[in-house]
């Protein structure tokens, strides 16, 4: 629970000047009912006002950045909490690959003046909080299930973006990133099958 509280604190500090005055709320409440700033909503709001690129391209950049930050954060959790080495190794891959993709996306966003989040959205923090309530093999299985669901959605988003985005740089980013995310999904699905036969951890 302390980890999630730290995320909330970071959100509050990093986005203290968050209101863009466009009528969209950039705050939400965490699991304790405390109001926190939603970094993803702040980025969306800023891009609606400044319009650095077309809306679809900006929305894609914000969403993928949010997902990537979450994958890195959850990968770090896996390094700490996973009890199976394959799950730990998968978490390490998430940290490495999504950090690299996040850096590439940030470089594109910086060049184009797109605002992207720098901390996971409250929605994703909530998912991490739920994971924190589990232990041992249950944690490993829940984490991998979450990775499968998340990567399926990301594969779909990247596939559509690689075909339909107007911005050429973000379209190329989607095209180049898609095979990596498909590989992550395949790995997660293989680990899920493996975990079905694991009775307990040492």
UniProtKB/TrEMBL annotation:
Domain DUF4142: from-to ranges: 57-191
Annotated keywords: Signal
Record's compositionally biased regions (Polar residues): 24-35
Region (Disordered): 21-50
Source taxon at top rank: Bacteria
Signal peptide region: 1-21
Gene3D superfamilies: 1.20.1260.10
Stored InterPro entries: DUF4142, Ferritin-like
PANTHER family attached to this UniProt entry: BLR2558 PROTEIN
Identification of the protein by name: DUF4142 domain-containing protein
Organism (species): Chitinophaga parva
């Amino acid at each position: 629970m302390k980890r999630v509280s730290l995320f909330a604190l970071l959100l509050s500090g990093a986005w203290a000047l968050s209101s863009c005055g466009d009528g969209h709320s950039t705050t939400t409440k965490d699991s304790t009912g405390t109001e926190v700033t939603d970094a993803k909503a702040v980025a969306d709001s800023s891009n609606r006002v400044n319009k650095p690129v077309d809306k679809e391209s900006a929305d894609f950049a914000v969403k993928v950045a949010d997902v990537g930050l979450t994958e890195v954060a959850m990968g770090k959790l896996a390094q700490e909490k996973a009890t199976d080495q394959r799950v730990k190794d998968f978490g390490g891959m998430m940290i490495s690959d999504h950090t690299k993709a996040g850096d590439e996306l940030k470089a594109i966003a910086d060049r184009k003046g797109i605002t992207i989040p720098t901390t996971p959205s409250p929605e994703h923090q909530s998912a991490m909080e739920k994971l924190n309530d589990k232990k041992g093999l249950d944690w490993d299985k829940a984490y991998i299930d979450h990775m499968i669901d998340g990567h399926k959605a990301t594969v779909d988003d990247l596939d559509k973006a690689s075909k339909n985005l107007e911005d050429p740089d973000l379209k190329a980013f989607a095209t180049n990133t898609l095979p990596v995310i498909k590989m992550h999904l395949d790995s997660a699905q293989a680990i899920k099958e493996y975990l079905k036969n694991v009775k307990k951890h040492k």
